Amino acid sequence: MDITFTTARRAPANAAVVAHGLTTEGLKSPPDGLDPNALRRLGFTAESGQVQMVPAGERLVAAVGLGAADGVDLGTLRKAGAALARAVRRQRSVATDLATASGLGAPEASRAVVEGMALALYQFGYKSAATRPKGDDALSRVVLVGSTAAGVRSSVEEASAIVAGVVLARDLVNEPGGTLTPPVFARRVARMARDKGLTVKVMDEAAIKRAGLGGLLGVNRGSTHPPRFVELTYRPSGRATATLALVGKGVTFDAGGLSIKPWQGMADMKTDMGGAAAVIGAMSTLAAVAPKVRVRGYLPMTDNMLGGDATRPGDVLTIRNGKTIEVLNTDAEGRLILADALSLASEAKPDAIVDLATLTGACMVALGPDIAGLMGRNDGFLAQVEAAAQRAGERVWRLPLPDDYRESFRSAVADMKNIGGNYGGALTAGLILGEFVAEGIPWAHLDIAGPARADSDSGELTEGGTGFGVRTLVELARAFEKPIAD
Description:
Elements: E1 4-8, E2 17-23, H1 36-41, E3 51-56, E4 59-67, H2 74-88, E5 93-96, H3 98-101, H4 106-120, E6 141-145, H5 150-174, H6 182-196, E7 199-203, H7 205-210, H8 214-220, E8 228-234, E9 243-248, E10 250-254, H9 263-266, H10 274-289, E11 294-304, E12 316-318, E13 324-326, H11 334-347, E14 352-357, H12 361-367, E15 372-377, H13 379-392, E16 396-398, E17 416-417, H14 425-434, E18 443-447, E19 453-454, E20 464-465, H15 470-479
Parallel strand pairs: 1-6, 2-4, 2-5, 5-6, 9-11, 9-14, 10-11, 13-17, 14-18, 15-16
Antiparallel strand pairs: 3-4, 7-8, 8-11, 12-13, 15-18, 19-20
């Protein structure tokens, strides 16, 4: 759905719906067109995310709840914007004062409203015209009423670019694994890179072999589709103040390899490239956001299948940096391809590295489906990632990487095993990844196994791929500063 967002001092006369944001306190004296007594009789209490429509002549007026005034934040606005968008999606246009009614800074508030409204109306699928809901894509114009200052207009334009990046990530995650094979994936990313002014390098299977990416090749052995490795680079205008590396797991479908997954969980494994999708979505926005740092993306791409020469449990793989891994569980494949990518990223000596991966079910057990696990090295850099996630409205929680847990993946025949013991799976996976980040480079690992997909619509999220991580990475690049060594 393509929606145009503009700003205006007041609601245009031709707006099909005029929507007012109301706190519980503001419900006592709402704007013209809204009768507080009538709203209460209809059950409207200004609860956060509540929407009540009432007719007013030739158009509709909507009351949108914001909750208590002292509790309104950017997350409240995203939720309210999403609820409003779903309520008016069959109308052609809406004008709303949500941003100004929030009492928050106009640029930040406007960005949150755009994100909430646009992302809530995201749709993906292969339904025929006969079965698609009629009229659900009517909304094409949203006017943000209040300030028309240049900063607000710029913020709205930037938000639209970020929404496009999240939509790109969602589209990639939602695409069936039999359609989005590694070569197709790489071609789509290369096309995006050319469109957005990014430098792109695509390694085919021969180049991957020459580069010594043994983890990626080992996972790919069971597939009929050859692997790819894509590198993206964003260069700011003027001198870059720092270099940030982004690494994303790109397993286009994960059957588990010879350690095959149960059928109940396999259908969702097209989403196992959510980390790579987040990096791609974020990098697609950088020309519009224009951070002052250089950003490099590293994207290993393969599926994990059961072909005749698939990697066997007990096989040993040699990673790009020379370290060896004994593969005891072929379904712990993400860390194998990320090992190569982290090794390559380290060789370029960036000021920091952040990787994203739908890596472990253990992280979902620990944190549930809505919160990503954050691990890594360098407290200052991890704090930057936490702050970026908070501004973006994406929830992360820091987890430890205990040194003594390394003993759990000690191998008798290689430098390490690819799995630890029965417990702490998210932590041992993080520790294994840390073996491939060069010493001294600040590094953050985001295990997004839970929030990379949603089982139902909620707030600005829609069922399926969420694009989690795109907004956090954009915020991180925008505000990134070279971390000080611990």
